[in-house]
Amino acid sequence: MTLVLNLLAWLPLINRLPESLLLILAAVICAVVALGAVSVVALVAVWAERKVSAHMQCRLGPMEVGWHGIFQTAADGLKLFIKEDIIPAMADKWLFIMAPAVVFSGALLAWAVLPLGPTWVPADLNIGVLYLLATSSLVAIGIIMAGWSAHSKWSLYGAMRTAAQFLSYEIPSALFLLPPVMAAGSLHLGTIVDGQQGGILGVGNWYVWNPFCLIAFVCYYVSSLAETGRIPFDLPESESELVAGFHAEYSGMRFAFFFMAEYADLFVVSAITTLLFLGGWHGPFGLHGTVIYILKVSAVIFVALWLRWTLPRLRIDQLMATCWKFLIPLGLINILGAGLWLALTGDFQ
Amino acid sequence: MDGRRSQRRQIQDRRQKEYEKTTSAVQLDGLMGSKRFMVIPAQPKPLQGEPMVVFMGPQHPSTHGVLQVELHTDGEVVERAVPRIGFLHRCKEKIGESVAYESYVPYTDRMDYLGAMNTNWVWSMAVEKLCGIEVPERAEYIRVFAGEFNRIASHLLFLGAFGMDLGAITPFLHVFRDREMVLDILEELSGARLCFGYIQIGGVHADMTPRAMDMARRFLKVLRPHLDDLNELLSYNQIFIKRSANIGVITAPQAIAYGLTGPMLRASGVNWDLRRDETYSLYNRFEFDIPTGQGLKGTVGDCWDRYYLRVREMYESARILDQVIEGFPEGGEFRAKVPGVLRPPKGGEVYVRAECPRGEVAFYMISDGSTKPYRLRARGPSFCNLSIFETISKDMLIADLVATLGTFDLVMGEVDR
Amino acid sequence: MSVLTDVFYGFVTTLKGMVVTGKEFFRPSITVQYPKEKRYIPERFRGMLVNDVSICIACDKCVRICPVDCIQCEATGKGKSRRPSLFTIDYVKCCWCELCVDVCPVDSLYMSHDYETVFTDRSLMIRDFVKDPIPPIGGTRVSEEATPPGPGEKPEEQTESGRSAA
User: Fold this and answer.
1) Residue B222 touches partner A, C-beta closer than 8 Å
2) How many domains does chain B have?
3) Mean pLDDT across chain A, nearest whole number?
4) Which value does ipTM take for this structure?
5) Residue B129: which CATH number?
């Protein structure tokens, strides 16, 4: 954001506008860039998912459109765009229309604080982590709206399950994000990443090497998979049981919104994992920068895809049992342990 | 636009009437003569819920084939699940009365289309028994070869489909890779990949080729490592076990009472297999075990047992095939001399059954001296297996219902015929 | 307590499963990219049913054995000069069971290797082989490939060798 403001201040005509207008203009530009980034990420993530799943299943995946199908997602997006907009007759029309927007904005809002590099962040909030946890709850409301408004029993089933799942897994997500926050002493994402600088081979100071943070890393990753609705927690979609669940009645661009929101969310969650546990943009041997960061996030996303195509899905009660009987107590114990470690040794390294 | 609005209006009117039934409105005199209504709710009734009736309709990703299940659910818990069949009824038994014996083979293919070789085999055995035709030894060997390969292909498909029901999509594709190899072998023998029509009256349609034997040997080398991989990926996966163990338990007395056969019966612990107990063809020459459900991960007769039993049956089929390939006779006829037009003697009545991938397939025929049967009855094991579905589906979650239905290994072609 | 053991085993078996899919990731895929690549067609493959009316003696055996009555045949001439004057196969009904090929005494009926036939109108699906003797739905009786692949292996680049539809 500061970059954009500086850029605007440099331009001849625009820098004569009043300050508030410049701020708004900068914010709009940042939002547009974030939206563009979301689209690109969704594009690449969908292609990667299809190719990774294909190669794990001894087949080839998209091969026709572009080199090895790299433009397949764009073609699919275009197809969804030109489809007929069907709103079921008995659907609650305004809720039906708003639901994808709410879900997408829940995913998009988190991009406001995601840094892409050391200084590239649209909004440099010093409560970054708290903001991320808060905005990820919006998705749950959108999904309930979608399931309810579609006026279909199957959608309702999907929405009910999903609401329970998303709200329950908010808690472990938050609990397991606390150890790195405690170590860095701040909710600001930049500070947390800078706390992981240096160390043995340049990677020794990553928070993930500490045992409590390792537990936190794994469990946060699992809870975040549940938050985004990936297998093994993929009840929201549950393709073989409820025929696409809460978004069964959606088609065309509205469906595309849900779809993009899922991948945007996946990127956000992988980015949080990388920033808080894997050293963000600090790479080995003192290298740092955006490329290292994107590589790490891609590796984390690859593991999410890998898990998706390996595991069957959990049932709703097993999912809830994992959350409430295992993850939450473990999260509390983990905070205790991490706190003791910090009190005794002062830092995780 | 208007139609929608009036539909909505009707629903709103109906809701208004129902609301008014539960309340009573009292008219009060308001300010300056205006009328105001105060609504007094009627005597409060305890909240009565209704079970939600949902149809898992004929087109559904996890009701294998065209099966409709009428679910009465209370939230996630199923109170009653009634299977409705008949969507694939093709009057096979009636058609059997107007098609000659030797022409009926394609119809038997399409009953259990995933175990076509085995169904052909039962049909051929029935007609041979009726007419007194003896099948040469080489033909019997080829029949066992084809039947066991078809069993492997059918069980492979079951594994993949069951994994898909539970959300594991990758094993489905791995299984299809192996299944393609089997279908290549059977294609080499018969020319077709699904509805073979290969095992015919008197023997088989065409002789074994050296290429088919070679392909079979190579496949059997590759099968066991692939099955081990599949076990690592799916069978022993803890999530899979949690989803399928202790679910949909069928006890042995229940299984026998409902007439279940095949893997469903054996998974409940009943040691009964027609290949050993009422042996036909050459099965008494081969050494193989009959696996039964042992409740390794839960109770005997749960979904995991039914699933794992089929995996073990594949290992046993591979064993039989090794012995078949080893002991394959050098020469011999692949088909007995059968008259061009078959006329079984009048008054013949025969009931022949055999062990197919899904259970006991049987044909009952009455002949009246003409070229066509007087009455033809086909017993599809999936039909009898499905009869227990309503009983065991009480108080299950929907996800468990889907898992249980998956282990029934239904082929609707057999259920409806 | 059982939750802990479940989670522990869940973790371990997940990793084992990931090893299997990971290994699979690096194995070459077995997809045959049709129509650029085509599968090997074995000798007995059942493609479209074709009758060579120059050999056919119109004995009606195929008509009688067909389970779905898709063949119609009328004869002219007697004895050695018996030939069909009408021989239609209705591809709407044909179920590719090959019973007619078995029973043909002169081997005029055969199943070609063609699987790419396309009909654009249902009236085209009844073919009269007397009027249209040279089958445009090509096909060879015997596959012409030199080295057939094993089970599950990809074929070499296939040549068209007269197997394309009109």
Assistant:
1) no
2) 1
3) 83
4) 0.84
5) 1.10.645.10
